[in-house]
Amino acid sequence: MALSDFTGPDYIAAWTRDLDDRWPERSAMADCVVRTLVEWRDEWRGRCGTIMGDERSVSEENGALIRLLELGVGAGGLAHTVLSALYERVESGRTSAVEYTGIEIESALVQHGRKLLMAAGHRNACLIRTDLKGDTWPRGLGPFDAVFTLQTFHDLGGVDALEAVYGQVHGLLTPGGILVNADFVVPFEKDDPNRPRRLPVETHENLLFNLGFVDFTCGLQRGKMACMSAMRV
């Protein structure tokens, strides 16, 4: 059901609960997205260290800056969890600073997400209302070290639209950056077989490989969904 199908003061929460009830695998997919990003962060931080001459270089006391992009923010719950997981403070005082940009087509969700992240103390967060369909949304954005999304890309309209967004993401990612996509990979009975939108894991892998991504991994497949990741060289 669309967000517009829900009413009342808590309609965004009701919409989110409806998604979780209909697709109980969403929770495992969200966990996989967070776990994949945390594991990538640990490896990435070890590789990059302090990048001399880069405007985002930081001192050893301050840790490393990670620039995140989420495509399809929804109610903002995944963003909050990812930001909380990646921003760590250890006893030495070292931190991992995170800058977050989120894209969402629904203006009500953009406003809701802004309030949620601000209330949670995530100050380096920017939410933008725009449509992923077309070639204008990446303008003025990036570069990013990690891009992630949950249950969004199947709404783009099919293989060609998915390939276009994957190509746009590749252009926004820094070398060594990661894309994490959790989405439907099993078609629904109502789907038009001549215009598939929920595509198998192998299709995602082939599209990403042809665009120059490497190290494709399907970290989890459950129910009708899978959590997939790939790296930019």
CATH architecture: 3-Layer(aba) Sandwich
Largest sheet: 7 strands, mixed
Q: Could you name the CATH class?
A: Alpha Beta
In terms of structural class, how would the helical and strand content be classed?
alpha/beta
Q: Order of strands across the biggest sheet?
A: 3-2-1-4-5-7-6
Number of helices: 6
* Mean of residue pLDDT values: 90
Outline the low-pLDDT stretches: 50-62, 90-94
**Looking at CATH, which topology would you report?**
Rossmann fold
| Overall morphology | globular
Radius of gyration: 18 Å
SSE string: HHEHEHEEHEHEE
Note down, in words, how this protein is organized.
- The chain is of the alpha/beta class and 233 residues long.
- It is 36% helix and 24% strand.
- It has helices spanning 11-22, 25-48, 77-86, 107-119, 159-172, 201-210, and strands at 65-71, 97-104, 125-129, 144-150, 173-184, 213-222, 225-232.
- Helix 5 links the parallel strand 4 (144-150) and strand 5.
- Helix 2 runs parallel beside helix 3.
- 36% of the residues are buried.
Fill in the keyword field for this structure.
6 helices, 233 residues, Rossmann fold, 7 strands, alpha/beta
In summary, what is this structure?
The protein is α/β, with parallel strands linked by helices and 233 residues long. The protein is 36% helix and 24% strand. Helix 2 (25-48) runs parallel beside helix 3.
Q: What does the secondary structure layout of this molecule look like, with pairings?
A:
Elements: H1 11-22, H2 25-48, E1 65-71, H3 77-86, E2 97-104, H4 107-119, E3 125-129, E4 144-150, H5 159-172, E5 173-184, H6 201-210, E6 213-222, E7 225-232
Parallel strand pairs: 1-2, 1-4, 2-3, 4-5
Antiparallel strand pairs: 5-7, 6-7
Helix pairs in contact: 2-3
